[in-house]
Amino acid sequence: MKKKILSALAAVLTVCTVTAAPANMTVPAAAAEQSLSGDLDGNGKLEKNDVTALTDYLLCKSSQAERADLDGNSVLNAADLSRLKAAVLNPKPIEQQHTDPKTYMEQVRSSYTHSIPESAQHAQGGELSHITYFSKKANKQKGANVWLPPGYSESESYPVFYVNHGIQNNEYSMLQGFNILESANALIASGEAVPMIIVFTYMYTNPNKDSCDGINASEVPFYDAFLDDLTDSLMPYIEEHYSCKTGRENTAIGGFSMGGRESLYIGIMRPDLFGYIAASSPAPGVVPAHDNFMDHVGSISESEFRMSEPYLPYLLMIAGGTADGMVQDFPEQYHKLFERNNTDHIWISVPNGGHDGGVGGPLFYHFIRALFKA
Description:
Layout: H1 2-19, E1 25-26, H2 48-58, E2 75-76, H3 78-89, H4 101-110, E3 127-135, E4 140-148, E5 160-164, H5 180-189, E6 197-200, H6 221-224, H7 226-241, E7 251-256, H8 258-269, E8 276-280, E9 289-290, E10 295-296, E11 315-321, H9 330-340, E12 346-350, H10 357-370
Parallel strand pairs: 5-6, 5-7, 7-8, 8-11, 11-12
Antiparallel strand pairs: 1-2, 3-4, 4-6, 9-10
Helix pairs in contact: 1-3, 2-3, 5-10
């Protein structure tokens, strides 16, 4: 079929170059202002109709050819038709135009509620499986759970959301209590969310043992080490074994408690990889702090707790409960530090909210609904 189309287009191209009165025509001024070259009918796609329209223009059958200068030389001729023909037969993704982060976050903030719709509390679907991968940082095999959305196909590619758990938990912990998969199923089914792959990580990255013994200063570095494990081992594994979209515009990270803390830390340290970040009840310690458990030396300084050009997050969300006895007001302290360092973000304070899914469930619901759309 493609050969027939090519033959037909080649014939038209011969007529254009030999018969058409104006072999080279100056591009109308409006053409230079359009973002999708070749989209002559303005419907946002490159299709056979656009080829026909450009052919008619070159044969003097039409006077309209805006957006047809595919080679950018301000002249319309057979070369542009050839390029358009190739684009139609071998389509490539069009570069996404992103909404200003501040504008996008305001849109998300304006629709936020402290509850989850009933439909997003029980929806089931997709495929969940456990995988093991070799961690270069830990020098051993580690585990993760991977959820594929309903209708997953290797012929398509999907953005990826990495979910991090709390301290002393594992890759199974976030599967319950936060309505993450239920929200994803309901929102994808309703068309409110982009189909995505969700990876539930095991953050603890210690070469000498497999699990955390307690909440103390000696164990914290093995959670910070997940930054290297994630970027050097887990992400490459996921991208090799599943049909993933890559780039920060297609990659999100979020988590609860220690997982929220590490999501903030990883997002700040690698803003080139993660464009969407969420932290539910994030634990202290990204910057120096003191709580009931320990003195946190901090992974970075307060002045480094920021994100800026050219890697502003498309979406950055933090939620905390006013009755959280575990992390107390540290989520709000992160919020105030972002404010001080001029990093746009969404702060959600949940009245009487504790250290649980009552805060995290709505956060992840709205986060998933807004992912990969900026």
